[in-house]
Records
---
Amino acid sequence: MIRILLADDQRLVRAGIRSILEDETDFAVVAEAADGQAAVSACREHRPDVVLMDIRMPGTDGLEAAREIAADEELAAVKVILLTTFDLDEYVYAALRAGASGFLVKDTEPVELLHAVRVAHRGDALISPSVTRRLIAEFAKTDTRITEPDRRLDVLTDRERQVMRLVAAGCTNGEIATSLVLSPLTAKTHVSRIMTKIGARDRSQVVVMAYEYGLVSPGRLDS
């Protein structure tokens, strides 16, 4: 059973999402919150597996709440998916840097929402190719990335660096396995080890770190 927390300041939006989720036998909505601070408190009380949270809320917004959840070691297993009405480029980068496992617009089809929850819960990639392209574009126009490789990547083997570059390109475990002539299980093991070594919560943060740490550059995944 996947335990879910809904956080949105609009009650009707929460009710609509809840009705979609509760039609699934493997989902349970364990709590709701109308603002970011209430969402953080509810996370600490109910320990959900996945949080579906609006970015724009009064008081503490979704980005700040996601940062608080990501910074709390006791909530390390909680996956946050941020929702917004507007598909704005800057939100993608900000959401992933805040520790979110994914980013969805509210007009996402119900089947895509359900898929996103399951994907986030198992810790797999929740960044679609279109979102990955926007993420790369955001890095290309900002000065936030590190220009020289970060020493924290010294813990990675050459193979793990190859895998991390492919994760940054939005590749699935299967695609990584095909590209490097590995078994899917070996590819998944490499990704898991990378996350452990660099302290990433999930694959979304691996993408962010690949750019911020200078492993890859916008437009070049072979750097």
---
Amino acid sequence: MWRIEAREYARQERRRGRRFAFTELVPARTALVVIDMVPFFVSDNPYCRGIVPNIHRLAEALRAADGTVAWVLPAVGERTAVADEFFGPEAAEMYRTSGGTGPMTERLWRDFVVHADDLLVEKSAASAFFPGRCPLPDLLEQRGIDTVLIIGTVTNVCCESSARDASTLGYRVIMVADANAARRDRDHNATLHTVYRTFGDVRPTSDVLSMIELLS
């Protein structure tokens, strides 16, 4: 189960006079950024499989409101001595190829369908917003996007990295608590605390759907 501690909500309410920084969004200026929902991460992780319905709900609602859905996949990068040293050669190779090969639409988890107006990109870093490692920021700028909804897996690695860098680049960041997944609740909730405290809002799918539908 996800949670933000009551004392952290109280701290933000004292500081800015309200619980959430971003109380509304403009769907046409909003992107749902779906991180690394590929078989390598999803197939053996029940937490990841559990967020699939919420991802569907968010994607359908945002598309219907003229927003953007962006699917982000791990690129197959160059093998490096540093990665081999850090992870060990076998694990480094496993992570290097975690996104699979072949057409990107076929590398997504099998329950997802990419629509014609969706974005489909690869990233060669943990973050989808790290300069020079993913085309996503440029594509979002072309569409006038100012708000990003971060979802996918794993919460405490690529999703958190993307949320941090998106905030640094000036986006309004909302991490959707029950549309992100890690391997343990403690890892998931530690990231939610960090993001809510410093980088963006943390809201459940139901809240975000209400924001989309209210202003669509």
